[in-house]
Structures are given as C-alpha cells and as structure tokens.
Amino acid sequence: MREITVPPTAGLPLQSADLWPWGAGNFAQLMAGWLAVPEVQLQCSGTSALMVALRALKTLKPQRREVIAPAYTCPLVALAVAQCGLQLRLCDLRSDTLDMDAERLQALCSEQTLAVLPTHLCGRVADVEAALQSARAVGAYVIEDAAQALGARSDGVSVGLKGDVGFFSLAVGKGLSTFEGGVLIARDPAMRAALKAAGRTTRFSPWWELRRSVELLGYALLYRPRWLHLAYGKPLAASLSRGDWVEAAGDDFDDHIPQHSLGRWRQAVGARALRRLHHFQRTTAEQARMRVAQLKDCGLDVVTDATPAAQGVWPVILLRLPSQRIRDAVMRAHWGDGSGLSLPFVHALPDYGRYGHVLASACDDDVSQARDWAGRLLAISNSPWLDDARFAQFLSVLEGALLQG
Ligand SMILES: *Cc1c(COP(=O)(O)O)cnc(C)c1O
C-alpha cells in the first residue's frame, strides 16, 4: 500500500456539509467574532488585501513612495507593492529570529517611507513593536503581514492589531481556505474607513468567481489523504524532476494580481469551516508542542515564538539546519516523498531572478542574513496526517543528517 501524501502545511480539511450554500451566516461577521475585532474587510486574496491597504495609506500620505518588507518573504508582497506603483525596500533579517534587523530597519526608514511590513512568517509571531518604533519615528505606517498567521495571538489578542493594518490570507495551504481570500483588520475606526474607501473599487467578477469556485470544489474533493497525491504529490514530483525548486515550493507567481470580490458561496464555505478552526488549531498546536520538544532533544534548532506572550499558530514546524549543504541534502532526499517536507520560500527576494523587474529599487539593499535563512530553513508539515510513526522516521533522518554534517 502506498503511504498517504501529507500536505506541506496543516490546512483545515473541508467537509461535504461545508459546501451547502445557504444558512451559513455572514462570513465577515463570523470572522470578526472569531478574531474578537469589531469588523473585518474581505478581499479576494491576501495580496489583494495588502494592495487595498497600500492604496488606503497612499491616499493618507500621497507624497510617500517606499514600502519596507523583510528580504525573506512571499514574492507576492513585491508584486503587490509594484502593482500599487510603490517602491520596495528590503530589510535584512536578524541572525537569531525571522524579524527584520532593527538597526537596518531604522537606517532604511525615511520621510519617503509609507509603510513597514513586519511579517508573521509561518505562524510565528513577529516583533511588531520594533517595527512600530522605526516607523513612527519617521511618520510611516505599519502593516502586519499575517498572511500565514490567522489565529495567532500576542498578549491575548489577535496579531494584526498592534500595527495600523493587518491582513490574513485564506489561500490554500494557509489554514482556513476559500481557495483564495484575504481578510483586513485595523484597530482604529478611521483606518477601517480608509480601507473601506480603498476597497470600494473591487468588483464582482463572474469569470474569477467561477474559476475560484471550481478550484475550491476541487480542493474540497482532493484535500484528503487518499487523493492528495493527485492534486499535490504529482505536480510536485514533476517540478522536482525538472529541478525547479521555485515551482516546487509554489514561489512562481504571475505578475498581475487579480482584484475582485469574494463570492457568496465561497464565503458560506469559509463560514462553516471556521466553526472547526479553533479546535483544529488547538490540536495542531498540541502536536507541534510535542514535536518541537522532540526535535530540540535531538539538538535541532527549531524556530519558536520569541516570548511566552506570543502564541503563534502551527501550519508547519520550522527548522534551521547547520548549513545549506545539509539542508539541501535532506530536501533532495525527502522533498516529494509524501512526508510533507517543504521550504517556506526558496530564496531571499533578490535571488529569484524572475522578480528582478519589481525589485530594481531594492537591489542595493544588503540581504546576507535573509540569504542565510533561505539556505538553511526547512519546514516540516504540521498536518495531523503526518502520524507519529512517520514523524519519528523523519526525526531519525534529521539526526543522521546532523551527524554526517
Ligand atoms: C501567501 C502570502 C501572502 C499573499 O497571500 P495570498 O492570499 O496568497 O495572496 C503575503 N505574505 C505572505 C508572507 C504570504 O505567505
């Protein structure tokens, strides 16, 4: 019997009852309640949500042109900034956490800075205070990129509320999914009004809605232990056989970011699945807690939340291996074997090549720590489908890799 294909992240599986279009309640209201915020604004993707936020901030400070993001993040961030007619500056990371280096950030911030984007990567809670300090000193805004961190909390409240704006992604692989979707939040009512005004131009698109609905249906059908090799395993194997790691990691994005509304049926699906999200995240957090302890016992460097007040979510467990050589050897041997191994992102942003045209203004920024992280990080799926026996197998693979290293 073939082993099941484990998804690269702990996505919440859909149930057939989720697909019933009527009586699910108002998704935006339910999401606001779930996050314990007064209201949320729904968009068609996390990237689209970021673009709405950037457009809103642009109307507030139209003379400012630069956006500062970590140099190791989702390439969609760079595409969104470019599509808004803004210039991206890349901030290098700290060596000990995935946060932006505070000194470097301070040096990058100027009267030109519109926004700084601390990023809650892979569910880990970022240091938003440090970003706020640098941003406030020059009158810039802070947008918390919480695309991978729906449900993460800091000091007991949802991430996304310390900064001026926060956004979450509902894309496949980020937890709760409407196939694609985005959620905007803001602490300040005036900012929420600005976000609404900036979102007013997004229209319903029958073509996009049809496409996304079919894709969501496909996800509901195939995101199951028996079928995932078709939807995920096979395309991954094809990318890997071509040696295309960027495609294998899903880092190959089209330049143009579609912007349209999130349709009713997909909202109903999200609303129903949301009822199970808390329980699912508690289960995966408990699984992560035990596995992180095991990994640490083996001497592995696990990326965790920096303080007890930060309670992230656990789509994956992030490891930093001693060298890129060891990391790449593990990936070559086990990426694509169905055990749910992946890379958060393959490269630091300037090293993709294919995004050079949107990074022109950022190409002088020194990103050596981000490169180091990109070379040594490895993500173990925290899906419940990765059972203890298979996790233990993988643990011994890692131990072996460390010994040989
Ligand atoms: C996925 C992601 C985005 C974009 O979200 P989409 O919903 O995929 O458009 C932005 N930032 C980060 C860090 C992400 O991982």
UniProtKB/TrEMBL annotation:
It comes from the Bacteria. The keyword Membrane does not apply. Keywords: Aminotransferase, Pyridoxal phosphate, Transferase. The keyword Ribosomal protein does not apply. It holds the Pfam family DegT_DnrJ_EryC1. One of its GO terms (molecular function) is transaminase activity. Belongs to the DegT/DnrJ/EryC1 family. This is DegT/DnrJ/EryC1/StrS family aminotransferase.
